[in-house]
Write a structure and sequence with these properties.
Blueprint lengths: L1 H30 L4 H8 L21 E11 L5 E14 L4 E15 L7 E18 L7 E13 L6 E18 L3 E16 L9 E17 L2 E14 L5 E16 L4 E14 L16 E10 L1
Antiparallel strand pairs: 1-2, 1-12, 2-3, 3-4, 4-5, 5-6, 6-7, 7-8, 8-9, 9-10, 10-11, 11-12
Length: 309
């Protein structure tokens, strides 16, 4: 596990260094633009990333570009050891003030030992790819609240729970709403996420058989600007796993809560972090536990760095 952690830490630091260098270049470029220093005050706070797992509705200004590197960790199940890591690199482009598209790829690694219902494994590799389209219907600056819808088709090479190799496809639909509760200080957001999935095990002798399932996530978040360009907050998330593509039969659920942090380090470069712990849950496959450790983990964490240009 120590070697695995060092590998991912080195990869994340490399991504951070690249983004920091790009961010410095972008800052120099922005300084040459007339009125750049006062633009943020006129336009208000960009809300997309100021929460945690919950996302804001903003899509950037037409022509904006962004590079992000995200490290997700899912830690702990019933048993001796469960660590699942995913690293994503993503490029985003604002086609208009209200429409953004993005493209990304992922790496995955799993370190699983003596977890009931799962085979021991230690490894990973290229995890898949995804494409997202996000449209903002309402801008919180000019409407009572912000509202957006994003659609993200994705392809994956690993089962996200067991780490087994296979082929999976999914489409994430995310409806987001946010509101400025106290001008430039306090913001709130709500997300509803529905994701149907189709998966096939590469060891399945009958390659025509696909398993179908779906996931539901409902989250709410609050964050406050405690000092200039630094936001601290918290969020609560309800996650549920279903058999069938249309939330046919619930297999398990978990309620997560935790803190969030966002810091705009320069005009171009930002960092955000979120950590959640499962407070309660239920699954018929979790024995002697008040949590759903069959479908979800004890803890989930996210660290993201990005550069806007």
């Amino acid at each position: 596990m120590q070697a695995l952690t060092k590998k991912w830490l080195a990869l994340f630091l490399a991504g951070t260094t690249i983004l920091a260098t790009t961010g410095a270049w972008a800052d120099d470029d922005d300084d040459d633009k007339p009125g750049a220093a006062g633009a943020a005050e006129v336009e208000g706070i960009e809300t997309e990333n100021i929460f945690g797992y919950t996302l804001g509705t903003d899509t950037g200004e037409k022509g904006d570009k962004e590079l992000t590197f995200t490290l997700d960790g899912r830690l702990g199940k019933g048993g001796q050891r469960y660590n699942a890591l995913a690293g994503e690199a993503e490029f985003e482009y604002a086609v208009t003030d209200d429409l953004k598209v993005s493209l990304g790829a992922a790496l995955n690694s799993f370190d699983i030992s003596r977890v009931p219902g799962l085979d021991d494994t230690n490894g990973g590799g290229i995890g898949g790819a995804f494409f997202e389209v996000k449209y903002r219907f309402l801008d919180y600056r000019t409407a009572p609240f912000g509202l957006s819808l994003s659609i993200e088709p994705e392809w994956a090479r690993y089962d996200e729970v067991s780490g087994e190799s296979g082929t999976a496809y999914g489409i994430e639909f995310r409806l987001a709403a946010d509101k400025e509760l106290i001008k430039d200080v306090l913001f709130g957001a709500v997300n509803i996420v529905y994701e149907p999935e189709w998966e096939r095990d590469e060891n399945d002798l009958d390659q025509r058989i696909w398993a179908s399932g779906s996931g539901l996530e409902v989250s709410a978040a609050l964050t406050a600007q405690v000092v200039k360009d630094v936001f601290l907050g918290g969020e609560i998330r309800y996650l549920a796993s279903y058999d069938g593509n249309f939330l046919n039969s619930r297999e398990g659920w978990g309620l997560f809560m935790g803190p969030t942090l966002y810091a705009q380090l320069t005009e171009a470069w930002y960092v955000k972090a979120a950590w959640s712990i499962q407070l309660t849950g239920d699954s018929p496959d979790s024995w002697n536990s008040a949590l759903d450790l069959a479908d979800f983990e004890r803890q989930q964490a996210r660290l993201q760095v990005g550069v806007q240009f």
